[in-house]
Every structure is written in C-alpha cells, then in structure tokens.
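Quick question: what would this complex look like in 3D?
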Amino acid sequence: MASTLIYSEQELINALKAKDDQAFSYLYDHYSGSLYSIILQIVKSPEIAGDVLQEVFINIWRKIETYDPLKGRLFTWMLNISRNASIDMLRSRNYQNSQKNQEITDNVYGIDQATQTSIDSIGLSKFLGKLRPEQRVLIELAYFKGYTHDEISQIEDIPLGTVKTRIRNALLQLRDYLK
Amino acid sequence: MNIHDYISSGIIESYVLGLASPEESAEFERMCATYSELRAARNAFEIQLEASSQQQKIDPPRELKSRIFSRIGMESDALMSKPPINKPVLVPRIGFAKYVAAASLLLLAGSVALNFYLLSEYKKSIARNNELIAAQTQVAAANQVLSTKLQTYEETMGLMKNPLMAIIKMPGSPNSPAPSSMATVYWNTETKDVYLLVNKLPLPVPEKQYQLWAIVDGKPVDAGVFDIHEGLSFVKLKTIPKAEAFAITLEKKGGSPAPTMDAMYVMGRVTG
C-alpha cells in the first residue's frame, strides 16, 4: 500500500533525513525482511531477533543524519547497524542467560532444530557451508560472533597475519559466491 | 601494491561487512577518495550483497512495524514540538501580543464607557422608580377614596333597595324659594330610620343649614340638619316613629326649634 511509492536511493535518503514517516515506512517495508534475516543468523532466536530489529530501526531513525553516502550504500550502513546490534545482544547478560535456558529446553524438546536449519540455509550462513573448515571457523568468529582479528588470533592461537589472510581469502570467495 | 591488487585483496568485502580493523577502514576510505575504480568495485560488491540479502528475506513478526512506528511517532512528536520554540517566530508573537494589548485597551475603554452609561441609566432608573412609587402611592390613595366612595354607594344602594323602605318624594312647592327643588325621604317602616336623598337643592350660604322636619299630628318635629355635598347626598337623620309628612326648610346653622315657614323649600306627604 504505502510501498507503491518508489524512491531512488538518493530520494529515500533525503526523505529519511527530513524525518518523513512515509519514507521510513517504505524503508521498513523494503528492508525489514533482509535485515531481520541478517539479525536472525547471528542471534538465532526469532523473538530476540525481533527485539534487535526494533532497536535497529529506531537507531536508523535517530542516526540517519550521520549516514555518509561516501562511505557506502544505505543498505551497507543498515547491515552494519544490524550486525553490531546483534553482536551487542549476543554479549548482553540477558542473552547469555536466555541461551543457557534455551540449551536446556533444546535438549528436552529439540525445538530450535528447524529454525537452525532454515537459518543455515540462507545468506552468509549458507556461504559458511561452502568454506573450508579452517576458513569457516574464522568467518564464524569474525562475522557472526564479532571478534576482532587480534581476539581471534588469541582464541585460535593463530598468528594475526594468518587470521587476516584466511579471512580475506574466504571473503574473496564470497564475491564469487554472490555472483 | 597497485590498485588492482588492493581491489582483489579482500579489503572491500572485509570493509563492507564490517570486519576490517579501524586502521584498515581508515586506509580504505582514503584509497576510495583517490581511486574511482576502488569506489566502483566497492559499490558493485555492495549491490551484490544487497541483492543477495533481498533474496534471503525472512519476514519479521507482523506487529513489529506498528511497535516501531509508535515509538518513532513519540520521538517524532517530540522533534516536531521543538522548532516553534527555537525558531524566531517571536516576531508574530509580539505582533499578536500587541493585538492582544490593543484589544485589551479597547475592551477596557469600552468597559469604562459602559460603566458610565450604566451608572447614569441606574440613576435615571432610581429617579423613575421614585416617581413611580409616588405615583403608585397617589393611585393607591385615589383608589382608597374610590373604594370608600364605592362602598358608600353600595351601602346606599343596599338601603334604597330595601323592600321595607317607604319612599316619600318631596317636590318644591310654588311658594318655595326654589320651586324646582326636589328631595326624597327613605323611611324604614320597621326600624323607623330616616334617610334623606337630596335630588336638587340650591347650595346654602355658609352660615345657613337645611333642616328636615317630620309633621306629626300637624306639628313639625325636628328630624335633623344636613349639609349638601357634591355627588350623591344620602344622609341618615333622626329616627322618626310616626309622621304624616316631611318638609325641608333653610335655617340658621345648627337648626331651629321651629321651622321658618317662608323658607320651606320642599314638602311631601306620607302615603298609605
């Protein structure tokens, strides 16, 4: 309904910076699905992903002024807000407590198996499956867990240079994979 | 390192996905500012990533949008309420205040004028009210007079209507000082009370008074003196038990023991 309007990227950005409700509604209709997918791949739980998505859109609304087109496309900016918010959630005490409970219930009922499977079959999660194991673990730690290269170097006890090279090589495959 | 090697080093993907370190990111942004090729390559990867992500959509819970928009709505309202305070919209406000002040003065002046008008009207009203009270008092007094008069007439009428009354007409005799005079005696045959109705008699001089006489066994008996008033003159005189005739003479004030025969104005015989 509201999405019958078509914005060019620049028009959309201008309208969002003007705090235009209609443009924001379009943005939500247009991008909430892909951002929710990105969030869900990191936090795993649909309920938590919903909470994160809410925070993400509130932040997009609040911080749209700070978006700089020279540094990348609007979607890239939103993707990074989504990923950072998801990783912040992973590290929050609430999330870690809920995950402990989740593991117990999972063991009893095996609930999240279907969700997990469906998450694995999309986006970068699916891409992970294409990688060699030594690359996969690094992408997992870097992209899905939010660790820095230094931290990964310590966790995996691999030289920092090797971490960088492996991650970059893995990401170069992503470019081909996306084609 | 030339730009093509840099492009194919994986830095673009690393930067776009947020995996580059702060130093790497800063360097990448500097390189982008310089090399349009690098910007184009970055843009191409971003578009690929966006397109791929758009194909991997998962619909979030339906109620989420309204939740988000209600929160945004609150912030939006807060935003919208600020500008009128910050912007120099004081000019129209001063103008408005002037209008208000001018309007207030006009209203005040109008109010003062109205007060004076109302005060003068109030004074007039009081004066008129006093006049009305006086007039009303006069009317009430006149009314009192009239009602007294009416009461007298009614009493008179009541007496005249009484079936027990004997009516003796007394016309003026040819020898009367005023031959056209006329008076009527109403004599209650039961109580023997005598009332006199003056039909027509000349007004006497101040020192004289009319006197009614009852003729009993051929001799005049004093039946009382009376004055003539404006209007209906119907007076009660002395009680006369027995009489053959009645007559009126003009005597000195207070009456005489015997009638002055040449001053007899009227006379009438009691019939039946």
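Answer marked as accepted. The longest strand of chain B covers residues 208-216.
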